[in-house]
Every structure is written in C-alpha cells, then in structure tokens.
Amino acid sequence: MQHETILGLINRLALPNAYASYVSLYLEPIAKIIQDQMKQGSIPVVGINGAQGSGKSTAALFLQVLLENNAAQRVAVLSIDDFYRTKGERKHMAQTIHPLFVTRGVPGTHDVELALNTISALKHALPGETVYLPRFDKACDDRKPPTQWDVMHGPVSAIIFEGWCVGARPLDHKAMDKPINDLERYEDQNGLWRKAYSQFLASEYQALFESIDWLLMLNAPGFEVVSGWRLLQESKLAQAADGTGSGLLNEQQCKRFIEHFQRLSEHCMLTIPASADAVIRLDDQHHMIDLQVKAI
Prior knowledge:
By secondary structure, the chain is of the alpha/beta class. The chain has helices spanning 6-12, 19-39, 56-71, 87-96, 112-123, 182-187, 192-202, 204-209, 226-240, 251-259, 262-275; strands at residues 45-50, 75-79, 130-133, 136-137, 142-143, 150-153, 158-163, 214-219, 278-282, 288-293. It starts with 5 loop residues before the first helix and ends with a strand. The model has no long low-confidence stretch (mean pLDDT 92).
C-alpha cells in the first residue's frame, strides 16, 4: 500500500512549503508519542482541540500520514463536525428548546451517541470489517446521506478525533447570567440557550470526551483572531463548492456565527492548556511557535 508523503500532502492542501518545518518541529514529536502508545497494544483515541480555523483538520491529516508512513498502520480521522445533527433535527430543537439551536456548533447540536458508536466500532473492527464514518456537508449545512459516508476497514491502530470543543470541561453555570456578545445580549436575553447547551456539555459530552486517551491543543492567541480565521475557512469552502452552497456565510453572517462559539471557545483557551497532554501555541498568522508536552 502506497502512502501519501508529507510533501504530497502540503501540495494537495496548497500549504506553503514552510509547513514542512512545522511538521518536523511540532507534529513529528506528537506522532512519536502516539506511535509509542500503539506499540503497547492499545488503540489510542487522540483528541485535538482548537478554536475555529486553528488548523485542527490539517494537523490531523499530517499526523495520519506520519503514523501510517512510519508505523505502517491504519489510522482513522474523525471530526466532531461530522457528527452534527441533521438540519431537520436542529430545527426540531429550535422549536422545542430555543431558536438558536438551529445553528450547528454548540453542545446539543451533535449526535453524541453516533460519535460514541463510531469510535467503538473502529476500536473493535476486525480484519477486513467495514466501518462507515459519517460525514457532514457544511456547504449544505446537513449530514451527508449514508451512501456518501467514508469507509474504513479494520483493524485500526489509532483514532484521531478533532473538534473545536473536544475535551471541553463543564462551564460555570453561574457565569451564564451575563451576556458576553451581541448574540447572547439580543437573541438569548434570558440565557436559556447558553444554559441549555451548558447542560448538554456537562452530561453526554463528558462521556464522549472520556473516550479520549491523549489530548493535543492548538492554542490560538485569543478569540479576537478566530473570526478572521473562520472567514478564511468560508472562502475556501465557497471555492470548493463554486459558491453554490446554501450553508456558506458572508462576512456579516460569519461574525454572528462565530459569536455562538465565543463563550465556550474562551473557556477552552483558559482551561484546556493545563489539562491537555500537549499544547502547540499559535500566533495570529496560524504559525506554530511553541510545543509543550506534559511529562508521561
């Protein structure tokens, strides 16, 4: 089986050649740690946390290439985004809980049971056994039909699970009373939405995050850079979809969309560095500038 090279992946993702130095300085040491866990006979679930647009998906793909090339193993990559509830399910939540639940993102808008079942299926997949990986189409803002899901064949040696709130600990419920942005101030005046997603986070999401064996954080310099990063993501999505996707956002819509994530993103930036197994610090241009690994 021929594996993709690091240079090939850099070219495919249209990244600057300088990204190769980030791989060698910051991601290869992470891959070595994961590889050591794989040698012990376990199937580690590696979580990657980071704010919107921080490069989680990119880092996951490079770790997959490093592990599959160096260890000749099969590595599954999952995103929490692929477990978003369908548009119809979120519309139902908007009608029964709060209108803001129509927008994908916060805890409560993911199918946690589907995520847990998929991780379990991957960990227990026998040689040749097929596991279907759900995929979400952000351009259409809906889950792809099962016929368009990715396929993985067992056995799997490691699972990389990335997402903006992966590994998040429960929020302080008392701090919910004071709004922190215009979305909360004008569209969630009584705090019902933010208190509801906080309850989801404190319950079923903790069960999901407990499945993570090793957590990496890509730590942005602050939430103020996230909106620009997200707008760049939307631009790339628009190019890939020829600008035809109904779920794509313009600049004003993107600013409002990002406000859905602000409270929990800032909470993650404050709390996860202390509990993560490794933290890669980023500057405002997406550059990796520092790696801290917790002693094992």
